[in-house]
Amino acid sequence: MAKSTVRYVCSACGAVSLKYQGRCFECQSWGTLVETHSEEPDAKTRKKRPSGAAPEVQNLDDALPEGFQRTLTGIGELDRVLGGGLMEASAILVGGEPGIGKSTLMIQLVPRLTDKKVLYVAGEESPNQIRQRAQRLSIKAPNLRLVSEVALERILDAIANEQPELVIVDSIQTVYSSDYQSSAGTITQIRECAASLIRAAKEENFILMIIGHITKEGSLAGPKALEHMVDTVVQFEGEGYQRYRIVRSVKNRFGPTNEIGVFRMEEDGLKEVSNPSEFFISDRRTDVPGAAVLAGIEGSRALLVEVQALVARTGYSMPQRISTGFDLKRIAIILAVLEKRLQFQTAGQDVFVKIAGGLKLVEPAADLAIAAAVASGLQDTPCNPAAACCGEIGLSGELRAISDGERRIREAVHLGFKSIVLPESNTRELKASIKKLPIRIHGCRTLHEALEAMGV
């Protein structure tokens, strides 16, 4: 019988420690070590070799088998996030807050795949509960088979008996294998159960979609190795109480990463938002200081997003710096540049930054919009309401070149903006068709020039 040994595994990086520590020795994260029971095989089991014939070796130039191609889901925003549809024999991990719409999106997917047999493995709900939810969403799917099971071995038996083309597991945290003594939801169970399901998907050529929970920090629960094992990681962003849902591809072996899809939650399920730029800037006020419009890029899509900043005199010895949707360390750098290079006094001010719509910005081109919003709040002067901006800020106050400048300009024109502020290096080799567009293009070399062009 296998011998159980206690190990402490970091949920952030997967490092293993023999004793508990408050801080991971590998990634230096605090409070991420989780107690697990790892089963070490005995001497007889360790010496055994895998049975069967030698594996088949193939050439790269061999022709693909017939039918091995992408499958469109019929949900345009989801197809965009996945890079053009579902790839055969792929494993997709879907994560998000409780109640944000993961299971709803999965069940809405089924009726559009009428030519595929779908097996829904429910670990959290009974089949009758799923039927009731389908009735509420007005979904009829004769191709959907339901099984309420959490034991891995029985799930694999159901897959072997049904021979489905798509398997949905809801959720991986409820699945356990009897080969391991630890309870369901532990790092060992999640890792080994997911590995077995992914191996079955590759061998039997079906699409596997795994629903996963997230931690309070917003990362996917379980070992980091889980994200490495799957082909695609799709994550819901925002809060469950918001009307709009943003779905982002965090990892994709078959398409672009950081691609986003926008949905609106209605009584009858998730509805696609065809023009998300209008959603992100629809409720903005143009006469209030502390707001700027970013011409951003998310994946392959150009978006206009409102960036808001509230600056107020602090009542504490140490000013507050609070951000929603943007990295707090980058905000600290931008504030330091504003104070050192442009003499804006931010030392005695509380600064609150928010990205409207629940979007999380990671691209460097968002720096200029953050700086413009903060400077507008400090000066108590609204930015030019007809101007959008984008650009990376260097520590000496210069604007650095960004990617996809022409697509940002076209999106600003599409939404009716009259001017756009860009780094000067992005305006040197613009196409003639871009220069003819009804928009004034400001090429700026420094942050000071950019803020003047924004009317701050």
UniProtKB/TrEMBL annotation:
The middle region has homology to RecA with ATPase motifs including the RadA KNRFG motif, while the C-terminus is homologous to Lon protease. One of its GO terms (molecular function) is ATP binding. It comes from the Bacteria. Residues 36-60 are annotated as: Disordered. SMART domains: AAA. Plays a role in repairing double-strand DNA breaks, probably involving stabilizing or processing branched DNA or blocked replication forks. GO terms for cellular component: cytosol. This is DNA repair protein RadA. Residues 67-214 form the RecA family profile domain. Residues 350-456 are annotated as: Lon-protease-like. Transmembrane segments: none annotated. ATP binds at residues 96-103. Belongs to the RecA family. RadA subfamily. Signal peptide: none annotated. The keyword Oxidoreductase does not apply. SUPFAM superfamilies: P-loop containing nucleoside triphosphate hydrolases, Ribosomal protein S5 domain 2-like.
